[in-house]
Amino acid sequence: MTGEEVAHLLCVNFNQDAKSLAVGHANGYILYKTTDALESSIVLDDADTSPAMHDAIIVERLFNSSLIVIVSQKEPRIMNIYHFKSKNMICCHKFTKSVLNVKLNRDRVVVCLEDCIHIYVLKDMKPLHTILDTPLNRLGLIDLSPAGSSLIAYPASLEAGSVHIFDCMNLSAVNTFTVHDGPLACLRFNIEGTMLATASTKGTVIRVYSVPQGTRLFEFRRGMSRCVTIYSLAFSADSTYLCSSSNTETVHVFKLDKPEDQEKKTEPASESSSGWFGYLTQAASSYLPAQVNELMTVERSFATAILPGSDKKNVAAMPTIKGQPHLLVATTDGFLYCYRVLSSGGECDLVKMHRIGVNAAETTRGDPNRPKPSESSSSRVPDANDPEEFPPICHTTG
């Protein structure tokens, strides 16, 4: 089977806690358990190829429940709420324009159209509120905090990099603040809804803000001058790490040191020669242009992961697996990569690669008597065309 036969994925998406991966394809959807990502194969939660599920361009799962939201490319104005365990279509909502994005938590369902945002009560799917006349949002750029106060973040301007924060529980605007000079390309809450990560269309700087105050907490630079398209941002469950994936082969992991941790690191330096350097740097910064001063203050990535030759659209997540932080990257060409994030940082180890998609399990495994590669060669990237080194994902059909 060729790579193109495995591909044809219309969407790949992790759920709120990154314990499930949803895949949309021409014939329906597939759900995988990411908790099995370190094993030789990962288990399918569900798959459905009924006509209503065909050409799934949006697949959103509510944590590890049986509730999913499906939007089909054939009927992009219809949002389907589906219970996959009982195979029951709970309801369908039709809109005047195409559904560009859907976010849900245990209280609310938020539907993004290009010029408005609809808010529903999850338990009965009754319409609660509509935010009208939002800035034109053709990318469907929006996020909903998974827990806490159910906050929505969405662009406040088509050209300027500002963001609106809206409270879905009290149905009130909370704050508006500027996060970048140019238009937004990506934004993401941490699971508690207390921090918001943002990136602009330039893609060189990632920033983290407190919510709802809008105070800048962290600023990270993923490159000096190379402009990229940021595909995804994701916090780890404990908000210690933040990862970003893009249209390049490098996935960046940033460490969110607490202010007291940074103070502990800088205190000893003030009593040494490096303290003089810090003093001179601070003094010089007041005379430098703002752009140069910014280069001196931002942090670099704590760790990086290299995708093996994939230039397709992707999404990243940072679950904790067996007590250790890991980086998962799913791509629309039908691969799931699992990296181990070391406590010391640096380049992440690629520990597993899986095929995902409708035809992934049909691949021939090859000669069972063939010796397996040495376990000690952890730095070597497995051959994606070798079924022994790169087994397909086991799954059942729903």
Distance between the termini: 23 Å
Strand content: 35-45%
Tertiary shape: globular
The top-level CATH class of the domain at 101-227 is Mainly Beta
CATH homology superfamily of the domain at 101-227: YVTN repeat-like/Quinoprotein amine dehydrogenase
Cα gyration radius (Å):
22 Å
Explain this structure.
The protein has 398 residues and is mostly beta strands. It has a domain at 101-227: Methylamine Dehydrogenase, Chain H. The protein contains four helices and 30 strands. The chain has helices spanning 3-6, 259-266, 273-285, 290-297, and strands at residues 9-14, 20-25, 28-33, 44-48, 56-61, 67-72, 78-83, 88-94, 101-104, 108-112, 117-121, 127-131, 143-144, 151-155, 161-167, 172-180, 184-189, 195-200, 205-210, 216-221, 230-235, 241-246, 250-255, 303-306, 314-317, 320-321, 324-331, 335-340, 346-347, 349-355. It has a five-stranded mixed β-sheet with strand order 21-22-23-24-29, with no helix packed on it. Strands 25, 26, 27, 28 and 30 form a five-stranded antiparallel β-sheet that branches. Strand 9 and strand 10 (108-112) form a beta hairpin. Residues 1-6, 261-286, 288-297, 362-385 and 387-398 have low confidence and may be disordered.
